Amino acid sequence: MDTQNCFHCGLDIVNTEEIIFDDKEFCCNGCKTVYEIFSLNDMTCYYDFEKSPGATPQEINGKYDFLDNESIVSKLLEFQEDTTAIISLNIPHIHCSSCIWILENLQRLQKGINTSQVNFPEKKVRITYNPETVSLKTIVYLLSSIGYEPYISLENYETGKNNVDRSLTYKLGVAFFCFGNIMLLSFPEYFEVKEYWLDQYRGFFRWLIFALSLPSFFYSASGYYVSAYKSIKSKMLNIDIPIALGIVVMFVRSTVDILMDYGSGFFDSLTGLIFFMLLGKMFQIKTYSFLNFERDFKSYFPIAITKINADATEESIPVYDIQKGDRLLIRNQELIPVDGILIAEKAEIDYSFVTGEAIPITKKSGDKIFAGGKQIGKVIEMEVLHSVSQSYLTQLWSNDVFQKNVEQKHKTITDRISRYFTPILLLIAFAGFGYWIFTDTNTAFNVFTAVLIVACPCALALTAPFTTGNVLRILGKKKFYLKNALVIEQLAKVDTIVFDKTGTITTNKKSNISYEGEALSEAHLMVIKNVLRASNHPLSRMLYDFLPDVKKIKINEFEEITGKGILAQTEDVEVKMGSAAFVELSDEDTRQQTSVHIKINGVYLGKYVFNNQYREGLAQLFDTLKKGYQIKVLSGDNEGERSTLEVLLPKGTELVFNQKPEQKLEFIKNLQKEGKNVMMVGDGLNDAGALAQSNVGISISENVNVFSPACDAILDASEFQKLNYYMKLSKKAITTIKMSFTLSLLYNVVGLSFAVTGNLLPLVAAIIMPLSTITIVSFVTIMSNFYSKRLK
Length: 792
Prior knowledge:
By secondary structure, the chain is α+β, with helices and mostly antiparallel strands. It has 26 helices and 28 strands.
């Protein structure tokens, strides 16, 4: 009797009554219901990605009633506003492309779900939804009804602990136990000792060895069989196919040897092979998790926040020094780095970094505000509820919304090699077996197994991620913080560098400021200083630090117009400060200096003139960069600094002044149309569009909490003069990848030549395989560390 499989989940149908819908058979009503849901919502292409990809939905009535409790839900949510809530749910059943597709299309199944994004390695889905339209409980029941029941543990959310998968550790332990004992029991066979008791009980010891190999063969190696089966099923041949085939062939061959009394077989080699391959996998996972740890917790952004002390003084502290209960000052355009309570009367918060929606949300005093929001308008104060989560800030920075669509050359090379690797390897293995079977059966099986085991593309696949991962870590320690490893590849391709002037090649730490105009009264100074307190523009910060301390007063209205100036109002004073055009000044002479013009209550009073201080080592840096790159400088200021810059910068450097933010963006676009690979270096304030448009956007951070997700890297201003060093190291990283590609391919060619000629035992091949991985990882680590120390 033929067994039928369920169209949805693939399980055997054992019911006596047929469950048929749409000419398709199902094992239970649950699977039929899921198919009906997909069919009604025109989502049956779920089944096109993989045959029978679904899971049988479980009966869970009443299980999630605790999600009716608002206090519990608020602990689970990452973010919560009137019409937007975000939650990350752990979905253990995620296993294939169909799962990703259905979980990223939940909005088609349930009204109120805006977006859903799957993190496949961590088996998580991040759902953004409207709590006014759909509840979290409804979403959880929806997921369960289609076979993706989430795992929710309040303990995990409160303590921040994750479930650790220890299955590989257990498998490794079992493999080591079997391997060690089989080696001990095989010693008499190795030395062929002629003793009565050995000859008498040889059969017993051989079957004992066979019994000890079973846990290793069936349990420890199970991951390879499952992976190989899924690979064949999805018609995508991966490296686990030859490995699984090699293990099975060795087991069958060894069992036949014992049954026919030809010898003790290769159970020692088999269990040793499984042990060493699992050891290599463990090493790989540990190294990856180390790099992830470095990325999340050690690559702190060089951004700071203004803390208000008990005595009302203000100090700038790193974001990761923020403690619960601290009072923070948040200026216009600053990122809110932590969850907290708003103390100011009113605030406008832009949560586009978190939700993708750029509509500001109005908050009142006492309301909770979430990390990741951007404050718009006058200065506000807040009290901290939780210390900063650095990994959360990293997540915001790496949001898909801000990713650039670029080709990953080395990833593409690796994928292409891996695609053809397995079929070629199987062909060589069968050809070697076919050649040797007519000469020596024992050698034929050794050749077949050794070929399948020794030629592993693991080292090849690890080359690019380990090199870039290590360089990412090195650069982070040197205060150059990259969004992801792909930025290294992009940096190596750059041929044109565009610099912003104010706040980028000039420093706001030192500047010679003078005032020209009518004398300012104490009342005027008090208003000007309080208005400047809310701004993050480099000139505003310099002028704020320059002016004497004054009494704090309330600012009723505040608007900062990008690239132009500030419009603010107190109870009886209207202030306008910024460029000459912004304060409607027509005198041409005033336009040839970097200056901030002041207009109070419609009367022009004067201007603060800035004699810009350029960063230390700027001339030397530009001289070095000029040898390998085209250099261009853009500025929103007038041409007053042209003569100074022409002396300071290399001859032929293009200088473009009076550039508005949209003109900077167009300038970058035009360069790219000419085929240039452009890197933009700016302060992240007026340059967001240009940073996003460029191939690589670098934001200079000078102790202010202005966070631009449009940038690909954040450079600590104190290390600005090392920019050429970072560019060189990125190029050397690509050289290291090419060298290790060559090394890995060379290893495979040499290993295969020994295996095909019968000069490589399967056990030796199993030891060499993880050693090749260790060799590649060690090589790329040593080379990237060597280049980081050698380059100047």
